[in-house]
FAD-binding domain-containing protein
Amino acid sequence: MERAYDVVVIGAGPAGCAAARTLSRAGLSIGLFDKAVFPRDKTCGDALIPDALHALKKLGLAQRVAQISYSVHGMRLISCDGTEVVIRAHGACMQRLKLDELLLDGAIETGVKFLPGHDFCAVFDENEKLYRVEFNKGGEIVSAHAPWVLLATGAHPAPIKRAGLLLNAECRSFAVRQYVRNEPLAKKFNELIFVFDTTVRGGYGWIFPGPDAVFNIGIGFFGSAHKHTNPRRDYERFIAKLPLAQELMRDGEIVSPLRGAPLRTGLSGTRFADGGLLGIGECVGTTFPLTGEGIGKAMETGILAAEAIIGKCQLGRAAVAQTYKRSMDVLQPKFAVYRKAEFLFNWPYLTNRLVRHTRRNETTRGKVEGLFNETTDPAFLLTLPGWMKILFH
Ligand SMILES: Cc1cc2nc3c(=O)[nH]c(=O)nc-3n(C[C@H](O)[C@H](O)[C@H](O)COP(=O)(O)OP(=O)(O)OC[C@H]3O[C@@H](n4cnc5c(N)ncnc54)[C@H](O)[C@@H]3O)c2cc1C
């Protein structure tokens, strides 16, 4: 079976759906392919930070998400020595099973043709104008043609390699999470909780409240730390040590097993574009190092790639690829700082001092708030004067 579209989008997560909806609203015909049958679960912490809310607004879906997500009004940082500080930032939380279904519906309603159960196998450049993309559908090879292809297959390296965008197969991070329902605890707080603790050396733990009193609790490791850890063991230690986690588990009902997944972070290890084939979302490393948040940047890069195609397609592949790469370059400085700042998680003394200083000092608190809200330069995390203040004031 052969099908022709203006754009073939491979992967119907946040990146693929955001791109498909944006392109389809501009009048292009879109084939959106995914190997999974939806609704499908994606292992995630489920937190929507300000960049995700911003992208949802741009897609015209913020209202719908607000209606079914759990809105949070801050982020509580807890350090190893028990010091806490609340960061003012808007956010939300909802299970990816529901969010991704909503995003997919948002694409389909604009006219996008969704084809589930299609496992991407190969892509061929037919005549430098048209791509043929091959999928395995229940043991049979089926093809689709389009002048533009967007790869949005997430962290796993195999499809990125098949598309010719992979430079380095290693995913720099790994995280595990579990769902636990606890109604009494749900009445007590509505913040995203980030915990820096020695049981999660090289990363952090989280407890995020979601709809229906279901919490998402997990731990993640960044940089090289994930190579040296045993996530299940460290998760158990994390729960045993943190009083809030103990309360959650003791009085709560476990509603899912512990599940883990790699994260492709740092805008590194892949090429963003090859001719008319562009990589979007986590497959090109759009998940933040340091925080592990990636839903927002997945949607944002999906929108950026779609806008590059809409604005420049008449000028050819090189113009589209260049426009997209330029917009990715704008994101690079923040990712570069976050990549370097991952060392902090290996030094509990430093995270203690940072949380303590953030609690005491309005200016530092403003800067940390700016990190989440994307209103300040995160470079202070790496400067000597910045750390002199944090350590000695
Ligand atoms: C444990 C954990 C916790 C996290 N917590 C958060 C958080 O709280 N907040 C946050 O913002 N981010 C979080 N992230 C990161 C976030 O999950 C990713 O950044 C985000 O899912 C990336 O979206 P995407 O659309 O690029 O890829 P994905 O969401 O992975 O979607 C990729 C899609 O491609 C499909 N696909 C894959 N291979 C193929 C193939 N061969 N053929 C066809 N289709 C294919 C998949 O089925 C999937 O539907 C977390 C990640 C992990 C692992």
The chain has a mean pLDDT of 94. DSSP finds 13 helices and 21 strands in the chain. The longest strand covers residues 173-181. Residues 317-341 form the longest helix (25 residues).
